[in-house]
Design goal:
Layout (H helix, E strand, L loop, with lengths): L13 H20 L5 H4 L12 E6 L2 E6 H12 L6 H22 L3 E5 L4 H4 L4 H16 L3 E5 L2 E2 L4 E2 L35 E7 H12 L5 H6 L2 E4 L5 E7 L5 E5 H7 L7 E5 L3 E7 L7 E2 H9 L4 H9 L3 E4 L2
Parallel strand pairs: 1-3, 6-13
Antiparallel strand pairs: 1-2, 4-5, 4-14, 7-12, 8-9, 9-10, 11-12
Helix pairs in contact: 3-4, 3-6, 4-6, 4-10, 4-11
């Protein structure tokens, strides 16, 4: 299979270099005329220029913002793994973010892809030197892992990650018909020490039944929605689905991720207790549970493990490669 290349060939010809510089800076020059972009957005002097041969078109509140892949990855890394964190854990996260992009580039067979710009608009406006200093650790991580992605059988993997597990990650198997042996159940005992490992959510009975009725989209008896649901959990303790029968005897399901978002649960790993007029959820973990636990990755980094080892523990038998 012929791959696209995040790392492009260098050229020593001055005219070619000048032309490329003009092409890459043109979106910023145009945007500056609208009064938005400052030097801080694109100055990244130490960025890997080869990786910037790939562009991202992000939908933000004012329109479309085109930016180099490495800059986009820097911002996404900040958004997805903020706060105090070991750099080796951040490197693992950067590889996963780049892997997501690599899959998009391969699918589109183009050097520019469209992405959801949620959360990016703040980076578009001018930032002071203090803000640029905040971004430097994230920018350095992107530079130090430039071009690296995870592959399985020569293709970018489904690069899943989340914040905290319930004690182990989930096995995906053939999710959506796609064989994903690299998304296996991995023990994450460290996650049980995370500050947000446990949470409690209380939902009034009438709110609970009404939200279910809307999600199912049919005519259901209240008692069916309140106490007769058939819950299914996977081997790692995460809910995969719940089914209900409507008045016509037809069975409908709500998947685990839809259900947990319906009631604001941090994850689909929970125990529930029904009281007379409300349901109480006792939740463990934060996120969908597939792939890399960011909390355990950080613990591993604190123990001296490098990002290569972190990724291999979570995504065996995926391989670390250059996207070329």
């Amino acid at each position: 299979m012929k791959k696209n290349g995040i790392v492009s060939n260098r050229t020593n010809k001055r005219d070619a270099g000048s032309f490329l510089l003009f092409v890459f800076l043109l979106p910023y020059v145009c945007a500056s005329l609208w009064g938005h972009v400052g030097e801080e957005i694109h100055r990244g002097e130490n960025r890997d220029k080869q990786e910037d041969a790939y562009m991202v078109a992000a939908m933000v509140d004012w329109g479309v913002w085109e930016l180099p892949a490495s800059e986009y990855l820097t911002y996404q890394l900040y958004l997805s793994m903020p706060g105090e964190c070991e750099q080796e854990a951040r490197k693992a996260q950067a590889v996963l973010l780049r892997t997501e992009l690599a899959a998009m580039y391969e699918e589109s067979a183009d050097r520019k892809v469209d992405v959801d710009g949620e959360g990016l608009a703040g980076f578009y406006r001018d930032k002071d030197e203090a803000w640029e200093e905040t971004l430097q650790p994230f920018r350095r991580v992107v530079e130090e892992t430039a071009g690296e992605i995870l592959t399985y059988q020569g293709k970018p993997i489904r690069a899943s990650y989340f914040k905290v597990s319930n004690g182990q990650t989930r096995a995906a198997g053939k999710a959506g018909g796609e064989d994903s042996p690299y998304l296996a159940a991995v023990s994450c005992e460290q996650d049980k020490n995370a500050p947000d490992y446990r949470s409690v959510v209380k939902v009034d009975r009438n709110v609970y039944t009404e939200k279910l009725r809307r999600a199912l989209g049919g005519d259901y008896e209240e008692e069916e929605l309140w106490g007769r649901g058939k819950f299914v959990f996977d081997g790692s303790g995460y809910m995969t689905s719940v089914s209900y029968c409507n008045r016509e005897g037809e069975e409908k399901k709500v998947d685990g991720e839809t259900y947990r978002h319906l009631f604001g649960l941090a994850s689909a790993s929970f125990e529930m207790e029904q009281e007379e007029e409300r349901v109480v959820f006792y939740v463990t973990g934060v996120g969908h549970g597939f792939g890399m636990s960011q909390y355990t990755a950080d613990c591993m980094a604190k123990d001296g493990e490098g990002y290569e080892r972190i990724l291999s523990d979570f995504f065996l038998p995926a391989e670390l490669e250059k996207f070329e």
